[in-house]
From TrEMBL:
<dbReference type="GO" id="GO:0004190">
    <property type="term" value="F:aspartic-type endopeptidase activity"/>
</dbReference>
<dbReference type="GO" id="GO:0016485">
    <property type="term" value="P:protein processing"/>
</dbReference>
<keyword id="KW-0064">Aspartyl protease</keyword>
<comment type="similarity">
    <text>Belongs to the peptidase A31 family.</text>
</comment>
<dbReference type="GO" id="GO:0008047">
    <property type="term" value="F:enzyme activator activity"/>
</dbReference>
<keyword id="KW-0645">Protease</keyword>
<dbReference type="Pfam" id="PF01750">
    <property type="entry name" value="HycI"/>
</dbReference>
<dbReference type="InterPro" id="IPR000671">
    <property type="entry name" value="Peptidase_A31"/>
</dbReference>
<keyword id="KW-0378">Hydrolase</keyword>
<dbReference type="InterPro" id="IPR023430">
    <property type="entry name" value="Pept_HybD-like_dom_sf"/>
</dbReference>
<protein>
    <submittedName>
        <fullName>Peptidase M52</fullName>
    </submittedName>
</protein>
Length: 153
């Protein structure tokens, strides 16, 4: 199925801050933005590649561990820069988001517009809720991405 704009929330909501990407996706999905498809995935690289197929613009939201302060948000245009393997390659997913993006580049399947919103995680404890700082970051990413998507519509 071909879509113009796709938002992919990545993570496991049962593992604390790892659920940040999916929390953003869930809240954006409730907004029912015109022309935007919103999906959630645990982040398997092949699933992410399959979801991106045919989209003109993809926004990926995921938790990361880079050593920054918990809740810090980074917006990375991966058509212009690589996703640092150290911060995005290690995750609870089979392959990290960095591998999915790198594979899409190698296979020339990266959408013309591909943006990653990364939220620095504090905890990946099983059964834990989002930490307070990551919860605030989720609110900020929902607001920023919603605004960005409305401008594109």
């Amino acid at each position: 199925m071909s879509v113009q704009t796709l938002v992919i929330g990545v993570g496991n909501p049962a593992r604390g801050d790892d659920g940040a990407g999916r929390a953003v996706a869930r809240r954006l999905g409730e907004q029912a933005l015109l022309g935007v498809r919103v999906v959630e995935t645990e982040g398997d690289a092949t699933s992410v590649l399959s979801l991106m197929e045919g989209a003109q613009a993809v926004y990926l939201i995921d938790a990361c561990v880079s050593g920054a302060c918990a809740g810090e948000i980074r917006r990375i245009d991966v058509t212009q820069a690589d996703l640092p393997q150290a911060a995005y390659g290690l995750s609870s997913h089979r392959f990290g988001l960095a591998e999915a993006v790198a594979l899409a580049k190698i296979l020339q399947r990266l959408p013309p517009r591909c943006i990653v919103y990364a939220i620095e995680a504090a905890s990946f404890d099983m059964g834990a809720p989002l930490s307070t700082s990551v919860g605030r970051a989720v609110d900020a990413v929902v607001e920023a991405l919603s605004s960005e998507l409305k401008k594109e519509a």
